[in-house]
Design brief:
Elements (H helix, E strand, L loop, with lengths): L2 E4 L9 E7 L6 E2 L4 E6 L4 E5 L4 E6 L6 E3 L3 E7 L23 H4 L17 H6 L4 H10 L17 H9 L36 H16 L2 E9 L1 H18 L6 H14 L6 E3 L2 E3 L6 E3 L1 E3 L2 E3 L2 E2 L7 H17 L4 H4 L4 E5 L18 E5 L3 E7 L2 E15 L5 H16 L2 H5 L2
Parallel strand pairs: 12-16, 16-17
Antiparallel strand pairs: 1-8, 2-4, 2-7, 3-6, 4-5, 6-8, 9-19, 10-11, 12-15, 13-14, 17-19, 18-19
Helix pairs in contact: 3-4, 7-8, 7-10
């Protein structure tokens, strides 16, 4: 039977996950603690390590299946036996998407050769190339030669971005060399002009959780959004003046987020309700500021938490943000990284957003939305001048935060950003 591979503990109150991707296939050797599968929980991806060194034996569940904590999902033949002694083919449910005789005819591509057709890539070929379902769909839709691409993901795995980048490259993808006497394979069929198609894709567990929590916020809180704009001239000047010295001393770039986290910490002292939450018929006030920073990850928006941000320096804040950004890209954020949080900052400006009404992150009571910086005409000292302006949006739970408090909070942030010296002398 071999050694059982079980779903590990996934964190407090999490009892199940979705098997996102097999990282090993039957017959491959594995080292002790080497990841063999990737699981998707409500918030993060978790890798399942091999309990022993040996040969991957059998996958007992398929990609996309729901598994419970403690469930057996695969077996490992202990002792590092030769791959030839392992099962020759993947189980029908876990590894083979094709049914009937096709599954036995689909062989992994030989070194240096491409699949028979990029639009017709088989499950076994996808496994050999270590393609996730999302990447496999991108290959099928774009028709690129997956075997000819170099992956930028973890352990050299191909990502969806790699496929889309290759598809949009000006030069066409070169065909992989064929064996002597072979004819280049014909491209797959293309949709007829005007053909209307649709595709159904199962929502990831993360996307389901995002949908549930956002709808919960709308159904529970009395949401209201107030706006202001801020002149970014002084922050831009300070950043330009000190960015090289800052990076040289701290090994990290000085960004705009550090200024806004500091400004939020300053404003929250004057308006503590924005850093509070409702619990039943009680209001819970916090004497600390744990800032949830919205970060875009390949599978959706995640909000890792900068803890005690009100007590951190600019360098510590920027290092924490950079670390979370890297972990989000690599898919290594943990449940602990995103637990808690008393206030959220979301920067839609990095994607070009001019204005938005963000939704609070329950059980928090407020979220600050940052937007893109653009030069606009404003009146200064009776003169119309161009200034780099940013719109700010504060969405809040009106059950707890009054309009006067919300406006005061945004004004305090505006004052601190337009005069960053306030951040240093605590005004």
């Amino acid at each position: 039977m071999g050694i059982e591979v079980k779903v590990p503990a996934l964190g407090e109150s999490i009892t199940e996950a979705t098997l996102g991707q097999w990282l090993k296939k039957p017959g491959e050797t594995v080292a002790a603690d080497e990841p063999v599968a990737s699981l998707e929980t409500d918030k993060v991806s978790v890798e399942v390590p091999s309990p022993v060194a040996g040969v991957f034996g059998e996958a007992l569940v398929g990609e996309g299946d729901t598994v419970n904590v403690g469930a057996v999902i695969a077996t490992i033949s202990e002792g590092g036996a030769a791959a030839a002694s392992a099962p020759a083919s993947a189980p029908a449910k876990a590894m083979a998407g094709a049914e009937g005789p096709q599954s036995s005819q689909a062989a992994a591509p030989a070194a240096g050769s491409a699949p028979a057709s990029a639009n017709d890539i088989t499950d076994e070929q996808a496994q050999a190339l270590r393609l996730s379902p999302a990447v496999r769909r991108a290959v099928q839709e774009t028709g690129v030669n997956a075997a000819a691409l170099t992956g930028s993901g973890k352990d050299g795995r191909l990502t969806k971005e790699d496929v889309l980048k290759a598809a949009s490259a000006p030069a066409p993808q070169a065909l992989a060399p064929t064996q002597q006497g072979e004819q280049p394979s014909a491209p797959g069929p293309r949709p007829a002009p005007g053909e209307r198609k649709e595709e159904r894709v199962r929502m990831t567990r993360l996307r389901q959780t995002i949908a549930t929590r956002l709808k919960e916020a709308q159904n529970t809180a009395a949401l209201l959004t107030t706006f202001n704009d801020v002149d970014m001239t002084e922050v831009i000047a300070a950043r330009a003046r000190y960015k090289d010295l800052f990076e040289k001393k701290h090994g990290i770039r000085l960004g705009f987020m550090g200024f806004f986290v500091k400004a939020v910490a300053l404003a929250a002292r004057d308006v503590p309700a924005v850093n509070a939450r409702i619990d039943g018929d009680e209001i819970v006030y916090h004497d600390y500021l744990d800032v949830s920073v919205a970060v875009s990850a390949p599978k959706g928006l995640v909000v890792p938490v900068i803890r005690s941000a009100d007590r951190m320096s600019f360098a510590e804040i920027e290092q924490a943000i950079a670390g979370f950004g890297k972990k989000a890209k690599e898919g290594t954020l943990t449940q602990a990284d995103m637990a808690g949080g008393t206030f959220t900052i979301s920067n839609g400006g990095v994607f070009g957003s001019l204005l938005s009404t963000p939704i609070i992150n329950p059980p928090q009571s407020a979220v600050l939305g940052m937007h893109r910086i653009e030069e606009r005409p404003v009146v200064k000292d009776g003169q119309i001048v161009a200034r780099p302006m940013m719109y700010l949006a504060l969405s809040y739970d009106h059950r707890l935060i009054d309009g006067r408090e919300a406006v005061t909070f945004l004004v305090r942030i505006k004052e601190a950003i337009e005069d960053p010296t306030r951040l240093l002398i605590d005004l």
